[in-house]
UniProtKB/TrEMBL annotation:
The keyword Membrane does not apply. It comes from the Bacteria. SUPFAM superfamilies: Putative DNA-binding domain (SSF46955). InterPro entries: Cbl-bd_cap, DNA-bd_dom_put_sf, MerR-type_HTH_dom, MerR_fam, Meth_synthase_dom. Keywords: DNA-binding, Repressor, Transcription, Transcription regulation. This is MerR family transcriptional regulator. Residues 7-76 form the HTH merR-type domain.
Length: 299
């Protein structure tokens, strides 16, 4: 079993802090700001305390403090300065950094504390759009560069998913649908990334729309059983890694679901963005949305 990463390379620090590895080496040599261990082949490795320190240094540096001044401060003084400046700095950037540290350290308490602090001044919609979406984008980059492992991504995504479910449950208690239009949300076979689709369901409920959330890995043939549920159904799906052939997916949808009459299919996710310019080649009942925001504007 692969061990969870507890030590980080200088490239990892670059990806997490935004400071170039070359600059970190210079600062380390000139100002002794970090204390890395070295492997038997003399390669630097950094623990989580080094990671926290470079994140704090990066924060101060972004706010106009020169490294020559920062290097003279103790870690306690650096921490206090970060907290003081944080009071007037970007709430979004602070939260994203806190969530990243919560992910790295598997710290649910830090995650919840940061989330609850955001709730004091932001709606859940604002938290998701301003913080969770950029955070998930950064996490994708960190995973691609092997800075974090899948276990880190799974951990933070599950915590975000829990918050979406809690807000969905609250909406179901507070708001009743005011439209007879039914939205059916599902992910295709071999697609398991459901955060985007869950948030779409939240938006539908927020706008008092009727919805049925079917979850992940569902064959198109199975959704036929809902056709008798309503005469006004719009199907929605979100593509992150599947299907392999989107054109074939659309063809199957038309054959299986639209044999009697056209039914709308709204498609979202990174994999559909390439089809935005080709939408004129698809039937009018197939609609591609480059972002969730574009869909929200139609509600």
């Amino acid at each position: 079993m692969e061990l969870v990463k507890q030590n980080f390379s200088i490239k990892d620090l670059e990806h997490l802090s935004g400071i170039k590895a070359h600059t970190i080496r210079i600062w380390e040599k000139r100002y002794n700001i970090l204390n890395p261990d070295r492997t038997s082949t003399n390669i630097r490795t950094y623990d989580s305390s080094n990671l926290q320190k470079i994140l704090n240094i990066a924060f101060l540096n972004e706010h106009g403090y020169k490294i020559s001044r920062i290097s003279k401060l103790s870690e306690e003084e650096i921490g206090k300065m970060v907290k003081r400046i944080s009071a007037s700095s970007s709430v979004e950037n602070r939260a994203i950094n806190a969530f990243k540290m919560a992910m790295i350290d598997f710290d649910e308490e830090l995650f919840n504390r940061t989330y609850e602090s955001l709730q004091e001044e932001k709606t859940f919609q604002e938290i998701f759009q301003q913080i969770f979406i950029p955070l998930l984008g950064e996490i994708g980059t960190l995973w691609q560069t092997d800075t974090i492992k899948p276990i880190h991504e799974h951990y933070i995504v599950e915590l975000i998913r829990e918050k979406i479910y809690l807000n969905i449950a609250a909406l179901k208690q507070e708001r009743k649908p005011t439209s007879d239009r039914l939205f059916v949300l599902f992910l295709p076979e071999n697609e398991i990334h459901d955060v985007g689709l869950l948030y779409l369901n939240y938006q539908l409920l927020l706008n008092k729309k009727s919805s049925i959330f079917l979850g992940s890995n569902l064959p198109i043939s199975d959704i036929k059983y809902l056709l008798d549920k309503s005469d006004n159904i719009t199907f929605m799906s979100y593509f992150t890694i599947a299907p392999q052939d989107i054109i074939e997916f659309v063809r199957e949808f038309q054959e299986e679901i639209c044999s009697e009459k056209p039914r709308e299919l709204f498609l979202f996710g990174n994999r559909v963005k390439q089809f935005e310019e080709q939408k004129k080649n698809f039937s009018a009942n197939i609609k591609f949305f480059p972002s969730i925001q574009d869909f929200i504007k139609t509600l």
